From TrEMBL:
Protein name, per record: Aspartate/glutamate/uridylate kinase domain-containing protein
Residue intervals of the Aspartate/glutamate/uridylate kinase domain: 7-198
Stored InterPro entries: AceGlu_kinase-like_sf (IPR036393), Asp/Glu/Uridylate_kinase (IPR001048), Uridylate_kinase_arch/spir (IPR011818)
Molecular functions per Gene Ontology: UMP kinase activity
Top-level taxonomic group: Bacteria
GO biological process: pyrimidine nucleotide biosynthetic process
């Protein structure tokens, strides 16, 4: 991959802020790994999700009042912006201060790290990441989640669910369905899946807290996770 191109990493909000609280050791090591690659000349766009922070606010809003789906989506978007600002601070001096909130437009920057949050209702950060790949000419998308593989069904419900090391976009679409729901807890957003298939992207899916795995992906080595083409 050319060092002139940005590598897109979609980082789930629950990886940054898990329910049990901040994992400072992970944040330090993630920062070190990204900066190690930046010092070698690589460039990154980090797309930050809302995670459990988003879902907690959405749940409280739904239980407290009659809130529209659009407003719930905006609530989730604001959660991604807060998380993204936090990640931006971790890379202070290295990352562009301007947050990407419209993935269809390039921002002017000489920085090697750009940070993106959510865009608008009906668009998850998965979809934003796919759009950013299109906007910046990336052919590959790295998705870091709180599970290690994509499974044929939810492994938290079906403990015998089969993990899928390789699959195509058509197979992924069968798993995630076709409809986006605010706060949905799917391995990858249905709308993003459809767009990724159309663009012919390669999606590398792995557990976000496994930094050895991420390092292997960045170095083009074998990794524990799913490959979608």
């Amino acid at each position: 991959m050319s060092k002139n191109n940005y590598r897109i990493i979609s980082l789930g909000g629950s990886i940054i802020i898990p329910q049990e609280g901040f994992n400072v050791e992970f944040l330090k090591k993630f920062r070190e790994l990204i900066l190690k690659r930046v010092k070698l000349g690589e460039k990154f766009i980090l797309v930050i999700g809302g995670g459990s922070t988003c879902r907690k606010y959405q749940k409280a809003a739904k239980e407290s009042a009659d809130v529209s789906a659009v407003d719930l989506d905006w609530l989730g978007i604001y959660a991604t912006h807060f998380n993204a600002r936090f990640v931006g601070l971790l890379f202070s001096g290295w990352a562009e201060k301007e947050l990407i909130i419209n993935p269809t437009k390039k921002i002017k920057s000489k920085k090697h790290i750009l940070i993106a949050g959510g865009w608008k209702p009906g668009c998850s950060t998965d979809y934003d990441a796919v759009l950013l790949a299109k906007t910046y000419g990336a052919k590959e998308l790295i998705n870091l989640s709180n599970i290690d593989y994509i499974y044929e069904s939810d492994p938290r419900v079906n403990h015998g669910a089969k993990k899928l090391e390789t699959l195509d976009w058509r197979e992924l679409r069968k798993i995630v369905g076709d409809k986006w729901v605010p706060g949905a807890n799917l391995p990858f957003d249905p709308k993003a899946t459809k767009a990724g298939q159309k663009l012919g992207l390669t999606l590398k899916f792995a557990r976000g807290t496994d930094l050895v795995c991420l390092e292997n992906i960045l170095y083009g080595k074998l990794y524990l996770g799913s490959l979608i083409k």
